[in-house]
Amino acid sequence: MIEVRIDCSVGRGRFCGQCCMATEMVLTVEDVERIASLGYRLEEFAEVRRGFLRLRNMDGRCVFLDPETRGCRIYEHRPLGCRLYPLIYDVEEDTVAMDGFCPRVEEAAVLGSREEAIRLFRRFYALAVEAYRRYLSHGMRNF
Ligand code: SF4
Q: Region 134-142: what's the mean pLDDT?
């Protein structure tokens, strides 16, 4: 299993949160089910953009970002893509890379091989496509 370790703390209980601004994070079926099991309705945390269900933004930031601390309100249950970031997938090239947008990318550690990471991201996108198909069939309310 791929694991990405990065310290996002900026001290005094606050966090960087840069990657949570104007998020485009894609959601998988598993992400949706896990977050919904916490009591959130799909339309509260997801929106459809560019062919996927994605984390919803509110006031220009992820709906789960605490504006005071810039920490994640559902950290233990956050989407797979958030767990993997700043490791990202290039769909066209079918490869993985570290996202230079993250100010701490040089300090991030990826446990696992490149091949494992690529396999994980392929599964990730298959489950994201499934989430979108389910949304098309059932809508937000009956997902
Ligand atoms: S941009 Fe990087 S350091 Fe900042 S919250 Fe995201 S992963 Fe953490």
A: 90
